[in-house]
Amino acid sequence: MTSGLLRAFFRLWAVQGSWNYERMTGVGLGFAAEPLLEDLKSADPTRHAEAAVRSAEYFNSHPYLAGVALGALVRAEYDQVPGAQIARLRSALTSPLGALGDQFFWAGLAPATIAAAIVGVVAGKGVWALLVALLLYNAVRIGTGIWALRTGLASGTRVGATLGKSWLPRTVPLVGYLAAALVGVALPLAVDWFLDRQSPNGHLLLIGTIPVVLVAVWILGPRVTSARFGLAAIGFAALIAWGLS
C-alpha cells in the first residue's frame, strides 16, 4: 500500500475530474483508491473486487479533504471491516469533511490570501504580491492534502474521533478571524488606492461599479462565493488601473 501512496495523492488532485450528478466525486475517489488497493489484489482477490466497486460509489465532500475519507476507507478494507459498515463510514464522512473544508478554505484561507494580495498590490509590490499569495495558499493546500491522506490511512474506522481531536476544527475559527481582519484592512486600502489614481473620473468609475456589483449578486445569488468575488474584484481593479495609468 505504501508504494501507491504518492500516486493516490496526485490522483486526489483530479478527484473532481469525473464529477457527475449520480455519484458526485465518487468515481474520482475510486480512481485515487486504486493504487492503494493493489496489495489487496494478491492477498484477497475477492475482497479487492468488492473494495474497488465500493471505492467508486457515491461520495461528496470538500475536494481538498477527500484524502481523509480515502485513507480511512482503504484502511477499513485492509482491516476486513464489513462492507455495510464501510458504506456507513463513507456516508458519515460526507458532511463533516464538506463543512470543515468549506469553512477552512473557501470562507477562510481563500479570502484571507486574496485580501493579503490586495494589500501587497496597494503597497507597491505588484505581481510579486500575487505570486506570494498563490504560493502560500497552495503550500497550505498541499500540506493539508498530505496530512489528510496520512490521517485517514492511520485511523481507519476511528477517523471521526481522530479528526475531531486534530488541529483542523480548532484552526477553522482562527482562519475565519484572520480572513475578516485582512479583508477589513484590504477594502479601505483598495478604495483609497483606487480613488488616488491619475484620473478625474476615478470617483465616478468607483460609484458606477456599485450598481453593477449589486445586480451581479442579485442574479448570481449563492454562486458568488468569497473566492470568486475576490478574484473578480482583483481582475476588475487591474483592468481599471491599467485604463487609468
- Element order, helices and strands? HHHHHHHHHHH
Helix content: over 70%
Number of domains: 2
Uncertain runs are none
User: Main sheet?
Assistant: none
Tell me the total number of β-strands. 0
Could you please describe the fold and organization of this structure?
The chain is mostly helical. It has two domains: 2-196, no CATH class; 197-245, no CATH class. It is 77% helix and 0% strand. The protein has helices at residues 5-12, 26-33, 38-43, 45-55, 66-78, 83-122, 127-155, 159-165, 167-195, 202-220, 226-244. Helix 6 (83-122) packs antiparallel against helix 7 (127-155) and helix 7 (127-155) packs across helix 8 (159-165). The protein is elongated and about 70 Å long. The mean pLDDT is 85.
SSE inventory with pairings:
Layout: H1 5-12, H2 26-33, H3 38-43, H4 45-55, H5 66-78, H6 83-122, H7 127-155, H8 159-165, H9 167-195, H10 202-220, H11 226-244
Helix pairs in contact: 1-2, 2-4, 2-5, 4-5, 5-6, 5-7, 6-7, 6-9, 6-11, 7-8
What is the gist of this entry?
This protein has 245 residues and is mostly helical. The chain has helices at residues 5-12, 26-33, 38-43, 45-55, 66-78, 83-122, 127-155, 159-165, 167-195, 202-220, 226-244.
Question: Could you list some keywords that capture this structure?
Answer:
245 residues, mainly alpha, 11 helices, 0% strand, elongated
